[in-house]
Structure formats: structure tokens, C-alpha cells
Amino acid sequence: MRLDYAFVAIMLATSFFTRSGASHETRPDRLRYAVFNEDGTPNLLWGEHVMEYEQTLLRPIFFEEMERMEPTWVKVHEAVGLQMDFELCIEQTADGFFLRLIQRWLEDLAEGRPRWSLRERMMG
Length: 124
Description:
With 124 residues, this protein is an all-alpha fold. It has one domain (5-123). The chain contains 5 helices and no strands. It has helices at residues 5-13, 45-69, 71-93, 99-110, 118-123. Helix 1 (5-13) crosses helix 3 and helix 2 runs antiparallel to helix 3. The chain is flat.
């Protein structure tokens, strides 16, 4: 079976299987989360944090398996990361909240300093 590496890299990079994403090293404790928000709607934060915790556990396994099965995919995935950072830069510039971070990222990129992921920094 042949994979379109660029397509798979983009799809997975924009989903939950990025090398770096929101991460939780320990399973969130349900008792520390409110069941309902102040407006009476269900609080979904606990479920989101559990999903991030599970993704944190699966992320290294996924990349190890992809490297074993399709080493080229990993190379394409990493190359797509820069494209994703540029897209994020354009999306977030209008907001102004991340403007200093974006400016630092662009300066580092222009001066050839070691590249760091804009997406990774924005996610904390």
C-alpha cells in the first residue's frame, strides 16, 4: 500500500497526532473539575484534558510505528511543520495576542537561528 505522505502528514499534523501538542503527563482527576459551568451547561474541560492525556501517551507510540512502517512519512511530516507554522503565523497576526511571539519566531527564522515550532510555543 502506498501512502500520499504529504496528505497524511498534513491531516495528522492538524489533528491530534502532532509531535508536540497539548499534553498532560498525569491523568486528570475528575474530582478537581466542576460538573457544570456557571451558566448551567455541562463542563467539558475534564473530557478534553483526558483526551489530551491519552494523546500524550499515544503520541510517541504513533511516531515510532510510523517511523518503522514508513520512514519517509516522518520526514515529510516534519517538513510540513514549517508550513503549518507559517499558516498559524498568518492566522494569529490579526489577533495581536501572540504578536511578540510571532515577531520573535520570524526574526529567528530570518536570521537562521535554530527553528522552534510556533505552534508548540502557542500551545504552551
